[in-house]
Task: inverse folding
């Protein structure tokens, strides 16, 4: 009985360990202003392979946990830029930026919330 429990424990432990090797967490500076920006940035960062995305309004830092075998920094940040938010590595276009709601246009510094 002890051997059976040990074998079952080992079988379930190995896949968990193997999965952790293919996950990385990185941070990027991403421009934004408010809670609406936070939601938009986090949703845009959630491309295939991303497990977690969180943008901090105070520090403007996006923390992303993802599988490098399914995506990379450039794909994630291109998606965020396409949503209108520039990062330290990928800049948004003027047309995409202008689609943001007025309070989310971070270049103007006019957001009141």
Result:
């Amino acid at each position: 009985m002890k051997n059976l429990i040990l074998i079952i424990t080992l079988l379930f432990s190995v896949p968990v360990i193997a999965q952790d090797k293919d996950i990385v967490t990185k941070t990027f500076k991403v421009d934004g202003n408010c809670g609406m920006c936070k939601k938009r940035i986090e949703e845009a960062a959630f491309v295939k392979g991303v497990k977690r995305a969180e943008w901090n309004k105070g520090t403007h830092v996006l923390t992303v946990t993802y599988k490098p075998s399914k995506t990379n920094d450039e794909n994630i940040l291109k998606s965020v830029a396409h949503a209108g938010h520039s990062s330290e590595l990928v800049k948004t276009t003027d047309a995409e930026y202008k689609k943001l709601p007025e309070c989310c246009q971070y270049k103007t510094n006019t957001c009141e919330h």
Remarks:
- The beta strands are 24-29, 50-56, 61-66.
- The helical segments are 2-20, 35-45, 73-82, 94-98.
- The chain has one domain: 22-104.
